[in-house]
Amino acid sequence: MGTRPVRPAHSAAEVLARLDDRLPDGPTDPVAVIDALVEAVDGGLTATGSPAFFGYVIGGTLPAALAADVLAVVWDQNAALASLSPAASAVESVAGRWVTQLLGLPSHVSVGFTTGTQMAHVTALAAARHRVLADAGWDVEADGLLGAPPVRVLAGADRHATVDAALRLLGLGRRAVVPVATDGLGRMRPDALRAALAGGAPPSHTHPGHAAGPGRAAAARPTIVITQVGEVNTGAADPLAEICALAHEHGGWVHVDGAFGLWAAVSGSPARRALVAGAAQADSWATDGHKWLNVPYDCGIALVADPAAHRGAMAAPAVYFPPDGAGQLDPVDWTPEFSRRARAFAVYAALRSLGRAGLRELVDRCCDLADHAAHRLAAVPGLSVLNATDGPAAPGGLVPLNQVLLRVDGPARRPGCARADIPSRGYPDPAVAGDRLTREVTAAVTAGGEAYLTGTTWRGQAAMRLSVSNWATTLADVDRAVDVIAAAVAARRAGGAGDAR
Ligand SMILES: Cc1ncc(COP(=O)(O)O)c(C=O)c1O
């Protein structure tokens, strides 16, 4: 995609300095406004749509999705009500149904189009909160949480930060979470979940128990289990079938964070599809359009198998809403927002332009490219692939999905010094040196402008991630990124690593 660097040329402070920040008293010609805006922000744009952007987990933009999203802006539809935008309502109905089918979820799920997975969590977990408290005889929408039976939340120790933020926003609080132990790839351990479900203090309240929802036993106490497919660093997936069965035995509601990983459901590889086996047994799911589906920002999707709980948690009927009459979807009932943009136009266009086969090809190509990168990078001296899988992967596959987690190794210790915890004089602590080298390589690759990587921390140590999520990324883009990474590793290891202590 062109020759401009993938990274921005200017920092936010530099863009701010170029931007005219004086609030104008009078009007300015619209063309002049746009010219000035483009000029001021140009160097502050990151080419996140570039096929050489491998940072975070960020998709590109499919041409049809881009055009549809531009139209959503041009048409300026408020998607809240079917009567206000029949078009937005109809397109959301179809796009929601298509996503449900592609992800292999039950046909009756209700769907809300949110800003991202963060708000999809808020939406779905509000439905979960509604149901588990209703089952305990508590109407949380009417009475709030003061005096409510405590809700316990069990979630993997490697859950995404947005889960905690959602629980905070819903008034459940971060401390409601019982962290469940995970394995080396960040997958929730079913034995640890079993123990956590069985353990803990019994509830002190005396609210009457109610029958649980479909598929769930009556709950001894309101319980939500949050699981994930597609750990942001490793791409690994929790064993969903086992987790759903265990949680449902205890009357728990299962929510799946599948921001990108849920799309493994469309893969042509049985091993990749195995990553999401059991997903349909959960009670709610959160995923993104703006990651692997390659629609423009912003687009998340909340799906809930209990539409009454979903609507009960979200609907905000106003006296001035006209009844649509034809029973069509009022999107306002399914997301936290009242007014909002017509996000589903882009989802509809993306899916229509790809079809099932195109989406399958997109997902598998990204995984194959990530795997190709992992194989090549594993052969680079001094570089380790931290998320080499021991579970299902495509035949010959090295990493579970589309993420490659890397670390630059620190130099070996002085021969004869067996104690890894004692830095020996003149020799660097390998862990500290590895952290430093890893951060330097990440920064050097991105600064070079040919590829964009982001750093992370994995098991307490610095790491860097290469995420292949863009429909336009080719083998040549990945090979170039691998070459750049290998060169940066070689350069850093050759010079100066010895001073790291
Ligand atoms: C597993 C997981 N959950 C949640 C999120 C948050 O998604 P969003 O940025 O769309 O809110 C991400 C983002 O990368 C993610 O990888």
Automatic annotation (TrEMBL):
Q: Which GO terms describe its molecular function?
A: aromatic-L-amino-acid decarboxylase activity; pyridoxal phosphate binding
Keyword check for Heme, yes or no.
no
Q: Which residues carry this modification: N6-(pyridoxal phosphate)lysine?
A: 291
Organism from which the protein derives: Frankia canadensis
**Keywords, ordered alphabetically:** Decarboxylase, Lyase, Pyridoxal phosphate
Please give the name of this protein: Putative amino acid decarboxylase, Pyridoxal-dependent protein
Question: Enzyme class, one word?
Answer: lyase
The EC number(s) given in the record are 4.1.1.-
Checking InterPro entries in the record gives:
Aromatic_deC, PyrdxlP-dep_de-COase, PyrdxlP-dep_Trfase, PyrdxlP-dep_Trfase_major, PyrdxlP-dep_Trfase_small
The cofactors required by this protein are: pyridoxal 5'-phosphate
What family does the Swiss-Prot or TrEMBL record give for this protein?
Belongs to the group II decarboxylase family.
Task: Spell out the residue ranges making up region: Disordered.
Answer: 197-216
Tell me if Flavoprotein is a UniProt keyword of this record. no
Example GO biological process: carboxylic acid metabolic process
